[in-house]
Design brief:
flat; 1 helix; 2 domains; 3-stranded antiparallel sheet; Protein FAR1-related sequence 5; 8 strands
Length: 134
């Protein structure tokens, strides 16, 4: 069961599996719901354990909202070459480069239309990946 509370959506799990009502169990003890934060939209400062976890979260969000993502930019460390930043964008972000070939080819449908849906994640010193820009 999900309950909207202010700007944050909460997932409520009840301690009794028989019914999902606030009442008393067989011993007369009141059943209190366990509330866990449920985040369904990315926000600046959101942390992930890995780059793959950030990618999976944004992909699930994009699918739910109605677009497809792709990796746009990758920043690497100068020291060891490991990935330290990643930009995940809508697959319709930007515009197609003009065709520089002299040969005339069949016009194709326009797929890049300048969509601005984007998330930028950076690896911090703790090893976690943090959303730095939306």
């Amino acid at each position: 069961m999900r309950v909207k509370w202010g700007e944050i959506q909460l997932k409520v799990a009840f301690q009794s599996s028989e019914d999902n009502k606030l009442n008393q169990d067989s011993s007369g003890t009141e059943i209190i719901p366990v509330v866990e934060p449920y985040v369904d939209e990315p926000y600046v400062g959101q942390e992930f354990e890995s780059e793959a976890a950030a990618h999976a979260f944004y992909n699930a969000y994009a699918t739910r909202v109605g677009f497809i993502i792709r990796v746009s930019k990758l920043s690497r460390s100068r020291r060891d070459g490991s990935a330290i930043g990643r930009a995940l964008v809508c697959n319709k972000e930007g515009y197609r480069m003009p065709d520089k070939r002299e040969k005339i080819v069949r016009q194709r449908a326009e797929t890049r239309v300048g969509c601005r849906a984007m998330i930028l994640v950076r690896k911090v010193s703790s090893g976690k990946w943090v959303v730095t820009n939306l």
